[in-house]
Amino acid sequence: MSKKKVIAIDAGKFNLKGRSDLGVLVYNTKYTFENTDADMLGAKTYNIKYRGEEYTIGDNATYSDKNEGKDSLVHVICTLTSISLLRGDATDIILMYGESFNKYINPIHKRLLKSIFEGEHTITVGDEEHTFNINLCHILPEGMGNVLCNMDAYKGVRYQVDWGGTTVIFMKTINGRPDADVCRSFHLGMHNLAAIIEDKLIKAGQGRHEIAKIDEWIREGCEDIEKQKIINSVIKEQLLKIDDKLSAFGINLHEYLEVTFIGGTAQLFQSQIKAHYKCARIYHDCLMANVNGYYEYGIAKYGR
Question: Which of 35, 86, 116, 226 has the most CB within a 10 Å radius?
């Protein structure tokens, strides 16, 4: 008798987050077009084989995809790898899968995702071959994972901002349902900040630096006071750009009493967000908010 399992995936541009009853996974959404010597893989990095092609995915892989939409090759192979690692002995999978709001409301794109994922898959992760059937791909919008985690706590009209790697998503929910006429998604995520900072550092006479090093400074801070000032100014400018973009839709967060921020970028920039928006409430688990919400909703709807 086949076994069923609900598995939730939030395949972000920087990190994939996965959850089942067996635990959670978090690793970089990156890939390389070949396997890596097993001794050189490192943590959260996997050799896989899918449809006759070999890849390395995870933290120590090379390439990412910054386009909007979760139907790219890297998102597909990372999702199938995560299902393999989270399924245990289950062979029938209900996949709760997140997509940006602009794509979520597009019925053609939703049909594309379902055609990609629903059905039988065989993938080799490391030395182990996995075969399973995705009975259902239930697509959910990014930006309201905190609501799905606790629907009772978010009754009435609520506002959320999901600041992620590629997009910023503004969500208005009414009794747990998104108001499609108001919700918006746009490209002001974190993915371009390092390039902007690099350009400003050069113009300020602070020298050239690797993008990886600048990413490290963004995440962990820089001991050089002048460089840190430039980093802080770019983050502040990004918040102002978010204001301008929302303003074009008639949305002014500074007029709201409470807005909950989620997403990996929101987790990094908590202090800057709180300084800029008096209404800001930072969710207690920004990075995992969406995948936890998808999982809790999936369990409530389909059982374990």
Answer: 86
**Token code pair at residue 31:** 């890939």
Residue-wise pLDDT for 257-266, tens only, equals: 999 999 999 9
* Domain 145-282, classified CATH 3.30.420.40, yes or no: yes
Compute the chain's Rg from CA coordinates. 20
What's the gap between Cα 217 and its chain centre?
Answer: 21
pLDDT tens digits, 86-110: 999 999 999 999 998 989 999 999 9
Both tokens of 18, joined, read 């996965």
Tracing tokens 């790219």 back to the chain, one arrives at 72
Strand 45-50 and strand 119-125: pairing? Answer: antiparallel
- Start-end of CATH 3.30.420.40 domains in the chain: 4-141, 145-282
Alpha carbon distance 284, 164 (integer Å):
16
Q: Are 89 and 3 in contact (CB under 8 A)?
A: yes
Residue written as tokens 């990413």?
215
The two three-digit tokens of residue 45, written as one number: 């990095």
How is domain 4-141 classified at the architecture level of CATH? Answer: 2-Layer Sandwich (3.30)
Strands annotated E in 22-91: 23-28, 31-32, 45-50, 53-58
d(CA 230, CA 237): 11
